[in-house]
Amino acid sequence: MESRRRDMELLSNSMAAYAHIRANPESFGLYFVLGVCFGLVLTLCLLVLRLSCQPPMRTPPHPRDLSEDEEDEDEDEEEEDTVDRAASESLLPVTEIPLESHGPGDGALAVNVFASAEELERAQRLEER
């Protein structure tokens, strides 16, 4: 019998809340917006706290320089090996940063930020091909 009483109490409270909302829609809207804003501010604070408490990320060690082994090969085989090696290796992500001060029609290029000089050389060789 206790559970039935709780169910009736929950139904009664729900109906009272609905009646209050119908009578005062402005206050309901205000409380709703305040709740959403509070949730967003709390999420932002927790995100900033999490980012500020993380230890700095370590950069992975660079792979050994493979250009010394390639000096004996001719230019065509070197380019093919470089392309094959670039496809097989897991490269660090490349970030493209658009220049905001220039408009799209004035010939401004995106700035590529590479993790190492080797990746920059590979990209330049591929671009020349």
From TrEMBL:
Q: Domain named EVA1: which ranges? A: 7-129
Compositionally biased tracts (Acidic residues): 67-82
Give the bilayer topology. Answer: Single-pass membrane protein
Task: Keywords in alphabetical order, please.
Answer: Membrane, Transmembrane, Transmembrane helix
InterPro entries, per this entry? Answer: EVA1_A/B, EVA1_dom
Q: Any stretches that span the bilayer, and where are they?
A: 28-49
Q: Does the keyword Transmembrane apply?
A: yes
Chain residue ranges for the region called Disordered: 55-104
Its localization reads: Membrane
**Pfam families under this entry?**
FAM176 (PF14851)
Q: Does the keyword Zinc-finger apply?
A: no
Question: Cellular component per GO?
Answer: membrane
* UniProt family annotation: Belongs to the EVA1 family.
Specify the protein name: Protein eva-1 B
- Origin organism is Pygoscelis adeliae (Adelie penguin)
